[in-house]
Design brief:
Radius of gyration: 26 Å
Bound molecules: adenosine monophosphate, zinc ion
Helix content: 40-55%
Oligomer: single chain
Distance between the termini: 41 Å
Strand order of the largest sheet: 4-3-9-10
Largest sheet: 4 strands, parallel
Amino acid sequence: MMKVYNTLSGKKEEFVPIEEGKVSMYVCGPTVYNLIHIGNARPMIVFDTVRRYMEHRGYDVNYVSNFTDVDDKIIKKANEEGTDPSVISERYIAECKKDMEALHVKPATTHPKATCEIDGMIEMIQTLIDKGHAYVAEDGTVYFKTRSFPGYGKLSHKNLDDLRSGGRSLLVSGEEQKQDPLDFVLWKPKKEGEPFWESPWCEGRPGWHIECSVMSKKYLGEEIDIHAGGEDLIFPHHENEIAQSEAANGKPFAKYWMHNGFLNIDNKKMSKSLGNFFTVRDISEKYDLQVLRFFMLSAHYRSPLNFSAELMEAAKNGLERIVTCVSNLNFLLEKAQTQELSADEEKALAQAKEFVTKFDEAMDDDFNTADAISAIFELVKFANTSVGEGASQAFIRALKEEIVELMDICGLTAERRQEILDSEIESLIQERQDARKAKNFARADEIRDLLAGKGIILEDTREGVKWKRA
Ligand code: AMP
Ligand code: ZN
């Protein structure tokens, strides 16, 4: 039985999907105005692992994650660069996808973009107005009327009266026409230099919350199994999504609400002003991004996670221990003389299965990847000590495959990548230059492709050929 901690109930609950064998899952994605930072990578890695484990358990997962591509920060950056906001968002969507790939985060089934879903947003806002859940202020802003939705506050378990009485802090300039401090914007009028769309209320753009309600409904239906994101999104974003979706559709929205804890740096909140801000790209200059994934999964997803140089080194060493074990097993596999399992080996494999069971039990218990990874380490230790001189191929292969599979469920590769040394790269580049001089372009292209296959990118510059690892 799989258990999931549901923020809505504040408890771990048995996971029972709406439709047998299928899981519909929506994960709030990043606002694309910059390279993603390592905090943004946490929900990507964590919920990708949830997805992979569910797929491993035989569920067909429909995974939707949006890109927020209309937002003040995107517009500001576009104005600074004197370009269109879509140039900024497209650039950072492409960069984000590169980071996701390097982190082994599978592409979502659908990655919708807010700007492509404006019609659906206008339609849902109109429904909310028609049903008395939203009102249009004099300046054309449309607000959601939180008092019209009795369940408001059920996700964040906040005391709404306290929030209302402290309401001045909720008042944003330009939103003075709200009837209640907790009401929030569904549609706002355009400002000079901003992108805008036609609507029945004014030329303008949507508020942030409405996009997820609309995209979730369009791509997954009115009722979904899991809605997820970082814990900072519980209030107001997810609270507001519930209010909009349930008020518009007249149905419960998501069955399970999952939230990851925050990532801090050296026990401090990550921030540009403190100078402790890292993009995923920064980390990739020092580490294979698998190390970052392994590091993130070494903690429970709901716990706060502290990032530091020492902890990353520890993660690197831990991962190396597993990869080395598999590489030794590969070596022994080639050397092994006998094929068939011996009776003792059969018994040993049954023992090894206990670690696999431990892994599954940990993952079934609200995706406890920390304990699941401990089980992998135990299996590695077992393999290191139980594969001796006369081990059979079947035995070595079975142990290796167990390790590789458990790692794969976590989105981690246990097989060592084919490494290439700097000196080998240099000599291949030289050979390519010689081939070009001799007009043997086929060979030159072949070398370029060979290097590309090993993640080496060549760049022909005026100063000669430069190369870098992808
Ligand atoms: P944003 O682009 O700020 O909307 O964030 C995209 C996702 O990253 C959301 O699910 C956030 O909750 C999550 N997130 C942002 N910062 C952190 C952090 N420091 N630790 C963990 N998750 C974060
Ligand atoms: Zn969202």
